[in-house]
Design goal:
The complex is a heterodimer of chains A (126) and B (198). Chain A is an all-alpha fold. Chain A contains six helices and no strands. With 198 residues, chain B is mainly α. Chain B has a single domain, classed as Ferritin, core subunit, four-helix bundle (Ferritin, Up-down Bundle), CATH 1.20.1260. Classes of the chains: A mainly alpha (126), B mainly alpha (198).
């Protein structure tokens, strides 16, 4: 009985740590803004289609759906919706997530990706 | 910006404004471009070919944008003569990059992406807000830094290492451009190493 109580306590603390502790902290949108300016603005803008499609509203949007941007067939026909998980995989290796895509650009570090995704989410009003 | 703040190195380049404005759109493969592509011995159809073509075309899109940005800057009438010369030279580098990329894409059996209408670049880059020479240089510096970081980020994706090396040579030009533009603007040099791609 005592043992079980301890186990429950531990897992509750574990859950608590997962929910509010730094191990599960969402990305830092402020740092993400700097990373975005440095790494993404060569090809993207928030409000204009350039080499890549405009990004405002991308979080929560279906891939390949910005009007007036000429996507690869692969991205256009993808059924992916952009959220934390899909954006993380896209930025880690776009070709692995959507073979035939045209971005090619990779962000190696998971914490950089998390911060960039937090920024995209914030700028999408989500 | 006062003209004394500008430290544009002497160029000795032959282009003048007239050549510059006439040269847009011409794409002849220079000897350097041919040698670069031929030097890419592994440039042959293979499993990574289509993905390499896609990356090359995305890079070509960047070069188109850069060429047009310099064009708009040169036609703005805002650049002092010695600054205009440097802008023309840098635009010339981007035109050579365009040739190299388009040549590699064709060699791999792909179709080089075409440039977009000038008005689209002008709108996307918000050139309407440009009021003086420093604004032109700031836009150019931002694009050069963006292109540098873009190339760095796509290089690991090339299946053909020869192409990654070509990209490295292009990116060296872009970072050289950024350095000149940043010093012309009086911006501090990066205090830390590895400031690009970060």
């Amino acid at each position: 009985m005592i043992r079980r109580f301890t186990a429950v306590t531990v897992s509750w603390q574990f859950l608590f740590a997962l929910t509010v502790g730094p191990a599960f902290a969402a990305g830092d949108a402020e740092r993400g803004a700097q990373l975005y300016e440095s790494r993404c603005t060569g090809c993207h803008s928030l409000d204009a289609n350039r080499v890549g499609p405009m990004h405002r509203g991308v979080y929560g949007r279906k891939a390949g759906t910005v009007a007036g941007f000429s996507y690869s067939p692969a991205v256009k026909n993808s059924t992916i919706v952009w959220d934390e998980a899909t954006l993380d995989r896209w930025l880690a290796n776009p070709q692995e997530l959507i073979p035939g895509q045209r971005m090619g650009f990779r962000v190696a570090l998971p914490e950089d990706r998390a911060d960039i995704v937090a920024y995209l989410r914030r700028e999408s009003g989500k | 910006m006062s003209s004394t703040a500008l430290t544009i190195p002497p160029t000795g380049i032959v282009n003048d404004r007239r050549n510059f404005l006439a040269g847009v759109g011409k794409a002849t493969l220079s000897a350097t471009a041919v040698a670069l592509i031929v030097g890419c011995e592994s440039l042959a159809q293979g499993s990574g070919t289509m993905s390499d073509v896609n990356i090359l075309n995305t890079a070509l899109g960047l070069e188109h944008e850069g060429i047009m940005a310099y064009q708009i800057g040169a036609e703005s009438g805002l650049l002092q003569p010695e600054v205009l010369k440097v802008a023309v030279m840098f635009q010339g580098h981007h035109k050579e990059h365009r040739e190299i990329l388009a040549g590699a894409i064709r060699k791999l059996g792909g179709t080089p992406v075409a440039e977009k209408p000038k008005a689209e670049y002008a709108a996307a880059l918000n050139v309407a807000s440009i009021k003086n020479q420093a604004d032109v240089l700031r836009l150019a510096a931002r694009l050069e830094r963006g292109a540098t970081n873009a190339y760095i980020g796509v290089m690991p994706a090339f299946a053909d290492r020869g192409l990654a090396q070509v990209a490295a040579r292009l990116v060296a030009d872009e970072s050289m451009h950024w350095t000149v533009l940043a010093s012309a603007l009086g911006e501090p040099l990066p205090a830390k190493a590895l400031s690009f791609g970060a």
